[in-house]
Known about the structure:
- The protein is α+β, with helices and mostly antiparallel strands.
- It is built from two helices and seven strands.
- The strands form two sheets. A four-stranded antiparallel beta sheet has the order 3-2-5-6.
- Strand 2 (37-41) and strand 3 (44-49) form a beta hairpin.
- The longest helix is centred in the N-terminal third of the chain and has 21 residues, at 2-22.
Amino acid sequence: MRRRVIAGWTLVGVLGMMLACADRPAIVFANHLDRPVSVHVGGDRVLILAPHTTERLPYQVAAWTWPRKIEIRDYATGQVLSSFRASAGDLANRHWRVEVR
């Protein structure tokens, strides 16, 4: 009986953590270009986007400390296509979406 109670509480805890993660914000990167790009946050490459794809990056993955410098680079050449600094408030104002055009 005791094992069932412990297993039940463990299941409740795991489900609670899953639900808590479901409402956490994610930054959406949408690549509208005809070439692959890489997304760098604070100098670290965190995503590679194929042409005309969209990827979600959980906010906490890139949230070491904000504001952070976000760079979009051409994947093949490493050339910086765009660069900006963003805080959590800036990203929220963009509806957590970064368009790569």
